[in-house]
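Intended use. Records like the one below are meant for learning the mapping from a protein sequence to its folded structure. Do not use them to infer anything beyond what is encoded.
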Amino acid sequence: MSGTRTNRTGEPAAQHDPRRWWGLVIIGLAQLMVVLDATIVSIALPSAQADLGMSNGNRQWVITAYTLAFGGLLLLGGRIADLVGRRRTFVIGLIGFAGASALGGAAVSSGMLFGARALQGVFAAVLAPSALSLLTTTFTDPRERGKAFGIYGAIAGSGSAIGFIVGGVLTEYLDWRWCLYVNVPIAVVAVFGALSLLHEQPGQPGARLDIPGAILGCGGLVAVVYGFSEAESRGWTDSLVLGLFAGGVALLAAFVWWQTRAPRPLLPLHIIKDRNRAGCFLTMTLATIGLFGLFLFLTYYLQVILGYSPVKTGLGFLPLTVAIIIGSTQISARLLQHVAPRALMVPGMLLAAGGMLLLTRITVHSDYASEILPALTLMGLGMGLTFMPVFATATAGVAPQDSGVTSATVNTSQQVGGSIGTALLNTIATTSTTAYITAHLLNPADRARVVAEGTVHGYTTAIWWAAGVMVLAGLVAGLMVTAKAPKYESRTSSPVPESVR
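Structure written out for the chain above:
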């Protein structure tokens, strides 16, 4: 019965389903679990390293194994959701993610933890696009979609910051393993909620996966992201790094060529040829480059330079989280019906860049309330203004058979941007720190002071670059995203009704 209502009448079914907002709670819960897992183990990493005997060179794989698998396999996960069915894929992703989390929590060696984190990324790549496509097909009324995407954008934007808070609390008061175990009860609740509250969106019978496209696309993304992660330790001119970049670009070029000839392409090129969607994808990539760089530097700055505990560090990010939620749900969601998406995205990126510029003034003795808090507030409001219209605009007007892969492309932009930002900005910071220490360390007795000052100098140099990336994101949004306010678009252009005609 629910399938008939959804497939044939489309919009009315979604409008009158009394359980749709509870369904949003389940979708949001799953999305929060996936997003915060990229950062929840960051604060726990020193404890896990000591417990499992990881080397300094290998510890990065606790983070990188997850983002590599997640970002590299998202397109395939999105297409699986389109072919198999969104709710079914959503549930499979939840169960697999919970199992991988339990395996990581029980890890007895670093290799076991790395493998579990990679497996988490694989199932996250299945789970995330099915969650967003379920949201797209559940809320078709423009006003309700604005509210729903405002909540979803707030979760997606604040999840990483929430991960720091949760990770700090669990590490300090329980054990680092609970940063992984905590996913199990969340996933159990989400599975039962999905089965009882979400309607199944049937897959395409008889359709097949584009296996060559999956190999080329996923291989290219993994190579590029892996290259950026290795550049942090090896340097940008290392032969392996250059080889990874060259191989990744070649694979991605071959992927685009194949998509023009594949009978059932993994990523239909009309999705990224659309000017508005392409602008949203690029804006998201650039925005998360700066955001993840902020997370990295501010975490180490608060703990190493200012001496904050894990919990205090996590709570230090709370204003950023609150500001993102306010920007998404109270500003963007209310205004998107009346203004064009870029009228929110451009000011959002400029606000975020302004927050970054404030952070370039930090020193080894900065005060949180007067120097860091205002910057985090501006950053959060800017991200909230940006994320919500990006998600809503990128997925608007997409036929149901392509909603999964479109959703995956948005998430891919976020994950690849985060991976690039972490590696790129960290390399800039490390290089600047080394140069500063070399130039200023004249007396060995001053080593501790010079190292601290050099470290902060490296952070501020990288933050200058991040601010520039944010401005570039605003420029891209202003020039490429030309969609009008949903209020002025024809109701027949909403994704579900259009596709069932």
